[in-house]
Amino acid sequence: MASKGAGMAFSRKSHRLTSDAEKSRVTGIVHEKLLDDYLHRIFSSTDRAPTAATSRKLLNFQNLPEHLDQLLHVDEEAEEEEESQGKVEGRLGPSTVVLDHTGGFEGLLLVDDDLLGVIGHSNFGTIRSTTCVYKGKWVYEVLISSQGLMQIGWCTINCRFNQEEGVGDTHNSYAYDGNRVRKWNVTTTNYGKAWAAGDIVSCLIDLDEGTLSFCLNGVSLGTAFENLSRGLGMAYFPAISLSFKESVAFNFGSRPLRYPVVGYRPLQDPPSADLVRAQELLGCFQAVLSVELDPVQGRLVEKESSEWQLQGQPTVLLTLAHIFHRFAPLLRKVYLVEAVLMSFLLGVVEAGTPAQAQSVVHQVLDLLWLFMEDYEMQDCLKQLMMSLLRLYRFSPIVPDLGLQIRYLRLTIAILSHEKSRKFLLSHVLFDVLRSVVFFYIKSPLRVEEAGLQELIPTTWWPHRSSREGKDSKEVKDETSEERLRRRAYERGCQRLKKRIEVVEELQVQILKLLLNNQDDNGGEASRYIFLTKFRKFLQENASSRGNMPMLCPPEYMVCFLHRLISALRYYWDEYKASNPCATFSDEAYIPPQVFYNGKVDYFDLQRLGGLLSHLRKTLKDDLASKANILIDPLELQAATMDDLDEDEEPAPAAAQRPMQALAMGGALPLPRPSWLSSPTLGRANRFLSTAAVSLMTPRRPLSTSEKVKVRTLSAEQRTREDIEGSQWNEGLLVGRPPEEPEQPLTENSLLEVLDGAIMMYNLSVHQQLGKMVGVSDDVNEYAMALRDTEDKLRRCPKRRKDILAELTKSQKVFSEKLDHLSRRLAWVHATVYSQEKMQDIYWLLRVCLRTIEHGDRTGPLFAFMPEFYLSVAINSYSALKNYFGPVHSMEELPDIRDSLMQALASYVCYPNSLRAVERIPEEHSHRRIAMVRSLLAPYEQRPWAQTNWILVRLWRGCGFGYRYTRLPHLLKTKPEDANLPSLQKPCPSTLLQQHMADLLREGPDVAPSFLNSVLNQLNWAFSEFIGMIQEIQQAAERLERNFVDSRQLKVCATCFDLSVSLLRVLEMTITLVPEIFLDWAQPTSEMLLRRLAQLLNQVLNRVTAERNLFDRVVTLRLPGLESVDHYPILVAVTGILVRLLVHGPASGTERATSVLLADPCFQLRSICYLLGQPEPPTPGTALPAPDQKRFSLQSYTDYISVEELAQVEQMLAHLTSASAQAAAASLVSGATAYGSTQPQYTSPQLCAYCTPNLSGHPTPAHPALCSLQPTSEEDLCPICYAHPISAVFQPCGHKSCKACINQHLMNNKDCFFCKATIMSVEDWDKAASASATSSAA
Question: Fewer Cβ neighbours under 10 Å: the N or C end of the chain?
Answer without folding.
Answer: C
